[in-house]
Every structure is written in C-alpha cells, then in structure tokens.
Amino acid sequence: MNEALKIGILYSTTGPYGAMGIDARDGAMLAIEARLKEGAGRTIEPLFYDPHASLGAYLDGARHLLREGCRHIVGTITSAARKEVIPLVEKHDGLLWYMCPYEGFEANENVIYVGGCPNQHLIPAFEYLIPRYGARPYLTGANYVWGWEMNRLARELITNAGGAVLGERYLPLEETAVDRIIAEIAERRPSFVLNNLIGPSSYAFLEAMKALGDRDPVFRPENCPVVSCDLMECELDLIAAGSAAGQLCAASYFDNLDTPENRAFKAVAARRHGHERRISSVFASAYTAVDLCIGAILAAGSDDPLAVRSEVHGREWPSLFGPLAIDRRTNHAALPFHLGRINAENGFDVIASRPALAADPYLTTRGTQMPAKLRVVS
User: Fold this and answer.
1) Which of 9, 206, 277, 287 has a beta carbon 3.0–4.6 Å from 273's, enabling a disulfide?
2) Higher per-residue pLDDT: 376 or 223
3) Do 210 and 272 sit in the same domain of this protein?
4) What's the CA gap between 320 and 338, in Å, rounded?
5) Does the pLDDT value for residue 2 go beyond 70?
6) What's the CA gap between 56 and 64, in Å, rounded?
7) Phi, psi (5° rounding) for residue 193?
8) How far is CA 112 from the centre of its chain?
C-alpha cells in the first residue's frame, strides 16, 4: 500500500458540454484533495486527460490512463463517450466510474453508475408534470443516443398515460438553429416541452422559448414549462440573462438543498472555490464517485476491481446524497429525485423531492413504470 494510488480523470473541458466537464473535473479533484487532507494512508496521484470533446480522443485518453497504471477511471460526460471507452476498460479489467444522468438500459460489471437513470429522473418528473399540465408534450433532443432513448421512453410514458406526443425534433450537437422547432411548438401548443438538447443547442432553445413566451403568454413557463434532465447550475450563466427563469430540471442534486450533508459539503467546496461557486449535480456526483472509489480501495486494501466492487456493494457509504447504496446486480446507485425551478439568480429552487430511489435501468421492477391511469389534464 506504499505505492501511489493512480486515479484517472477523463473529462472534456471544452466544446458543447465543456462547462459540465470543468465542474466534473473540479468535483473529482476536490474529493482527492479532501482525502489527502484527512490522511488517506496512501499517496493519491490523479492523472487528468482532456479529450476536448472529440469522441475518438476519449478512447485515446482511456488507453493512456490505463497504460499509466490507472485501474479506475472517473469520467466521460455523454453516453456516446461512455460507450466508446467501456470495451477498452473491460479489456483491461478496470472500472469506469460514471456520474452523469443517462438514458438507462445498460448495466456493466466494469462500470459503477453514480448518475441517475430514467426511473430516477424522467419518470418522477413526468409523474409531477402530467397531472398539472397535461399529457400532450413536445419532445426535443440531441441527435444521438441520449436524445433518442429519452424521447423513446417519453413516448411510451405518454401513451401509457393516455396522452399524445405533439411533435419530436432533433438537432446535432452545437446546432443552434431552433426556429423550426419553435414554430412547431407555437402551432401545436403542447402542454409542456421535454428538452433533451445539450449545451449550446439547449441554451439557444431556452432563449427562443423565452421570446415565444413574451409574444404569447400560453408559452410562459407557468403555462407550458420546459423540463430537462441534463441542465445544471454551471450552465445557467451561459444562457442569456433571464431566458431560463421559471423552467424546470430533474436531478439528484441541486446547490441549494438544505440538508446537513449538503451544508457540510458546500463548506468544503467554498474553502477551495469560494462561496460564490454554485455546485452542480455533475460536480457533486464526480466528487461522490471519486470519494467512493478511494474509500472502497482503502477498505479493500487493493485497487483490484473485483475487490473494490465487493467493498462498494457491501455497505452503505456516507455521501452528500445521504447514505449511498450501490446495487450489486446493476452497479447503479440509489439516488434521490429533485425537481428544480430556475430562479432569477441563476440557481434552482427545489419544488418537489423524493427520497433515494433504487435504480432500475431496464425498467423491469414493479413500481418503476409510469402508472397507466394517470389523470390527463387537457
């Protein structure tokens, strides 16, 4: 246990999701600093690789980190990047610690999932929205697996609720031409909008929805909200001032959660990044993933992935989400659900919450499907 423990950090800090990558990197590094400060009993050496939003470079980065002796890699933001590196991590019998919300329908023995899957974000969000606004949404998404799968699931949920999807459009990453989508929304007048766009596409869409609401009060957030499962505090300053206020986001964490765990965590973060730094769910989840990874390695006395997985599954771990349990069948974390409304200060006010929900990535467990008899509001 005297040799340095190498932890690979694989995040893009530039490109369409660079703001999320910066927050994830900072959260991961804060966890390492905190472990070193408390005396981990072993030198921890983080190795950071930035793929600069290039899908091929994620594979290069994972290969570099594994060759440098990192048996554990914390990283990737998008599902495309995660799926790109998993086969290489499997080949080297490493562990990828993934901490972003994703579309589900995956479980891999070489991945620990600390980000939420749909029964922890999309389904409870719809259970909140449909009785209040109706079951006639419009769906938007990034033109890759996140957008496709989230909208596919949304269609099933709406059908089960007796509603109808009024439109569905996709944009390439970084595309900001949203006029056609906005024109369709204005014409079809949905009850709410599910936004699965990413980065600049999402920001341009929210700005255009604000303009539409200014022209027609039917499309103001209180009447036709836009709900996302991937919008975070670190992105709100990148949206034109006031354009996102009132819109909704589902997440396992928000900066202003008033819990003992979060108050303690924010005090640690403030000492490193200042009190003005808002903590996003990717910052919090990356911190949690690294802290869990290091804690399990120390408990196992080895960074061998088999031993580490055994430790991860063997107990509940203290975390800023509360006691954290990882399901041994799926390697997914049980996570709380929160629904946040964007406020005028570019933060989130939490308007609905549920305690930790066991992950069901394949939606096979009774109680994780959308109830078929939801009341539909026309």
Assistant:
1) 277
2) 223
3) no
4) 14
5) no
6) 13
7) -125, 130
8) 14
- Among residues 76, 72, 59, which one has the least CA distance to residue 25? 76
Q: Say how far apart CA 282 and CA 235 lie, in whole Å.
A: 11
User: What CATH number did the domain enclosing 241 receive?
Assistant: 3.40.50.2300
CA 309 to chain centre: 22
Q: What is the pLDDT of residues 164-210, one digit of tens each?
A: 999 999 999 899 999 999 999 999 999 999 999 999 999 999 999 99
Look at residue 177 and give its three-state secondary structure. coil
Give the count of domains, the chain.
2
Query: For residue 116, what is the DSSP state?
Result: -
Q: What amino acid is encoded at 201 in this protein?
A: S
Q: Which residues pair with 326 in a beta bridge?
A: 333
The bridge status of strand 335-342 relative to strand 95-98 is unpaired
The predicted-structure confidence for 233-262, as pLDDT tens digits, reads as follows 999 999 999 999 999 999 999 999 999 999
Tell me what pLDDT residue 372 has.
41
Is 185 in the same domain as 205?
yes
Domain around 125: 119-256+337-357
Strand, helix or coil for residue 332:
strand
Residue 311's φ and ψ, nearest 5 degrees, are -65, -40
For residues 211 and 71, state if they share a domain. Answer: no
| Rounded-to-integer distance, Cα 239 and Cα 51, Å | 24
Classify residue 375: in a domain, yes or no: no
Confirm whether 364 is domain-assigned.
no
